[in-house]
Structures are given as C-alpha cells and as structure tokens.
From TrEMBL:
This is Alpha/beta fold hydrolase. It comes from the Bacteria. InterPro entries: AB_hydrolase_1, AB_hydrolase_fold, PHA/PHB_synthase. Pfam families: Abhydrolase_1 (PF00561). It comes from Thermohalobaculum xanthum.
Length: 364
C-alpha cells in the first residue's frame, strides 16, 4: 500500500473517531437532562417493618405458580432483577404466571448498625413469609435468593426445614474458599482480598463507621476488574453511542451501580469475617438465631443458578452447595455470563426465566 493510501486511511479513521466522540458527547449531554427509569414493572406494597418492605408484582394473568419471593442482598438494590422493560427477570416471571414478590431492604442508617444476619436471615424473612402467606393464601412459598440474599435464604431454609416450598438461588456464594478450584485467573479477587484482611481490622473499621459505606463497596467492585472498568467508559462506550437500546441499557446499569446502600455494621462483620474469612457456612459453625446453620438440614427442592464467567462469585463457590445437601431434589443451571449478566444479558433472558418456570412447575 502506498504512503498516500495509508495516510488517507488514517485520516478516515480519525474522522470516524471524531464523529463517534461528538455523537457520544451529545448523547451524554442529552441523558443529563432526563431521568432514566428502572424497575418499572408495576407492583404494590403489601407489608412493611421500618425500612424493610415487601411488594407484590401485579399479575398480567391469573397466577398459577408460586408464590415466590425475590430476596436480594444488602450490597445492591433489588432493582437489578427488573432493570428495564424487555430485559427484566420479574417481567418474564410475571408474564409466565408466577406470583412474584420482592423484598426491599431500604436505606440502612447508623441506627441500623446492630442489625446482623439473624435479623435478616431469620427474623425479617420469617415475617416476610408470614406476610406472603396472608396475601397469597398459600401456606408455603419459594424464596429466590440472589447473591448475599441467597445466603439469607440458605440460612432460613436450614433453620426452618419445612417452612419453604422450594429454594432458588442465583450467583450465591456457599463455599467462600472454593475460588481456589477455579482455573480462571481473573476470578476470585474479592475472595482473596477479603481473606487478606485482618478480622480485627474489619471489626475496628466497621465499628468506627457504624455501617459499611456503600461508596466503599461500590469502589471495591469497580476495582476488581480495572481494565474492564476503563474500557467500559472509553472504547466500549464509543461503540454503543449510536445504538439507542445499548446506550439506554448502559445508563440504566450505571444508575443501579451508583445507588449503593450502606451495609449494616453487624451484618457486615458476619458477611466479611464469618463467611468470607472463616468460611463458617460450609463448616456448620455459622450461627444464626442462636443456632448453627447446617446446610444438610435443608429439606425442600433447590435450584442453583450460577454465571460461568462470574468473577465476583466464582462458579465453584456456588456449585459447592451440591456437596452439602442430603436427599433433596437439586438442579444446577449454568449461564454463560458474568455476575450481573445472569439477570440482564439477552442470553440469560433465554435461560434463567424458563429454567425457573420449569422448576416451579414441578414443585408439589
């Protein structure tokens, strides 16, 4: 190729880059003048206790499956499972006839610093299940626990073996040290980082703050994959500047990521020390409500969904549950995505809702 032709190509590439950057700047400017809406599937409040609330999604047809209660963790908002129309897990569940509920943990403040795993996994979930029974007329429900919410659900199912109709989990850590079994070197950095912290340092840090700040947990997750974070706000963003749907999804995701609630202090200690550092859940020494949680006591059917490329909760950390259950129907569902992709990616939308509906259909 001649020097002149190569020069022309360079000029063309620069012109294209300039055009995309101009377009991106215009789109970002436009987005700053309006609110991006997330979690728009209609629902109604059915129960509240202080900051904690339970809502029931409005059915679009007569519900014939469930009831099922979606329980997220304290790290991120429950809006993740209803990020946007057409790419909403709850929208698809409701459309399939699942009587779907969702828990909102609210905005913990310093006044909530002494709430621990017992409060969330035992007390609140017990009250929530009672509220679901009153509302639905069904004596037993399914809990669908997501990430840390899955650990709340596991604890409740083990402590109250006959209270649940079924237990669904997604991207839930069970064996917090099983990341050593994952051959992918980019997985498990959160586990390694947390295990490297002195438990006394964690206690002092949380005691000084009262709660674990949402800004801190958000920054930690952003820095687990720094190259990916940089690319997301540069090259990747340029690529989607002219794709209206992709750009809207990006804005909704950023809104969810920016809304990190503070994590109640005592529950944070249970999470970081009891589970991440000391791995007590699979050892049978994690105490909730004054009793050790024995995963082998779970008596209801279980479906366990995990992300094959999940770098936050590596697949072995979730799949370890199989080894600790006894004589219960157990199903695993692998989704070829990362942690958040299990709920929002187009591929996951073709896998997760149908798998849950099929599993729910088989429950007694």
């Amino acid at each position: 190729m001649s020097a002149g032709a190569e020069s022309d190509r360079s000029v063309a590439r620069m012109a294209e880059l300039t055009r995309r950057m101009t377009r991106l700047a215009r789109r970002l400017g436009e987005s700053g003048t309006r609110q991006v809406e997330i979690a728009t599937t209609p629902k109604d409040l059915v129960w509240r206790d202080g900051k904690v609330s339970l809502s029931r999604y409005r059915p679009v047809a007569e519900p014939h499956l469930g009831p099922m209660v979606i329980v997220h963790g304290l790290i991120g908002r429950a809006t993740m499972s209803d990020l946007e129309p057409g790419r909403s897990l709850v929208e698809r569940l409701v459309a399939a006839g699942v009587d779907t509920y969702v828990v909102d943990w609210g905005n913990p403040t310093r006044a909530d610093r002494f709430l621990d795993f017992t409060d969330y996994a035992d007390v609140f979930l017990g009250e929530i299940l009672a509220a679901v029974a009153r509302t639905s007329g069904e004596s037993r429900a399914v809990i669908f626990g997501i990430c840390q919410g899955g650990d709340f659900a596991l604890c409740h199912a083990a402590l109250h073996p006959h209270r649940l109709k079924g237990l669904a989990l997604a991207v839930t850590p069970v064996d917090f040290h099983a990341d050593v079994e994952d051959p992918e070197p980019t997985h498990g950095h959160l586990n390694l980082w947390t295990r490297s912290l002195d438990p006394d340092l964690i206690r002092r840090m949380v005691d000084d703050w009262g709660n674990l700040p949402g800004e801190l947990t958000g920054a930690v997750f952003q820095n687990l994959a720094p190259a990916r974070t940089v690319s997301k706000y540069s090259a990747d963003l340029l690529e989607i500047a002219e794709d209206d749907d992709a750009f809207e999804t990006f804005l909704r995701m950023e809104k969810w990521l920016a809304d990190r609630p503070d994590h109640p202090g005592e529950a944070a200690k249970d999470w970081l020390i009891g589970l991440y550092a000391e791995n007590r859940l699979v050892k049978g020494s994690f105490v909730v409500g004054g009793r050790p949680v024995r995963l082998g006591d779970i008596a209801c059917p279980v479906i366990n969904i995990y992300g094959l490329r999940d770098h936050i909760i590596p697949p072995p950390c979730s799949k370890a549950l199989r080894r600790h259950l006894r004589n219960v129907a157990y199903r695993e569902v692998e989704v070829p995505t990362g942690h958040i992709g299990v709920f929002v990616s187009r591929r996951a939308q073709q896998i997760v809702p149908p798998a849950l509906v099929d599993w729910l259909s088989g429950l007694d």
